[in-house]
Please model this.
Amino acid sequence: MKNIVLAGFHAVGARLRMDPKSITAVYLDPERRDKRMREMREKLIAAGIRVMTADTRRLDGMASDVPHQGIVAMAEEKQAQLEFDELLDLITDDTLILILDGVTDPRNFGACLRVADAAGAQCVLVPRDRSAHMSPAALKAAAGAAETVPVVTVTNLAASIVELRDAGVTVVGTAGEATKSIYEFDQKKAFAWVLGAEGDGLRQLTRRRCDDLAAIPMAGAVESLNVSVASGICLFETVRQRTGGKL
Model:
């Protein structure tokens, strides 16, 4: 089975809670002796996990370009799997999907997985190209959500949106210039939000394939939000509607 690198307290801690037996080894920086590290070491040892020391240079090499915080783990790959054809077969009135168009930053991608998990989304749908994929940085930001929220990768995002609509899913994209707000849509049945990267937004073809476009009302001076923040706002509006306003 393929091993992956988990870096940082969130990523390692999430795997420790969900499936400690899948962790093969953990490397800790011996120079870090604070309370958080001591408690993590105790939990790892109590779970019977092999704990070893590694200096900062070695940890940097194991988890390049990721703030590892002095802790790196090797673990079995546990990413949730779902194919697009399977997704179409699983659509019900409760379906909630997050679609990301052009989100290439792995930290933003991982954070989107995290909010999708919190909102109970069925999956996150991304294009094969122009998208971040699983990496140590994404896994760290996801804080365990990569193991619970399937990432569905498609070759043609616009065509896949059409297929979702044909299957009964209302698909709404976000755009700052939209005349409707995210609160003006009935989201109690199968629903999908489409968000693009901050700055670039949705591609034109993606926009045209959506049922409609919506804007997040902005009262301040900033013109846009980080995509993971915007995803959370949109997804939890759906949750609010489906729970009768009781979050």
Q: What stands out?
A: The chain has a mean pLDDT of 90. The longest helix spans residues 227-242.
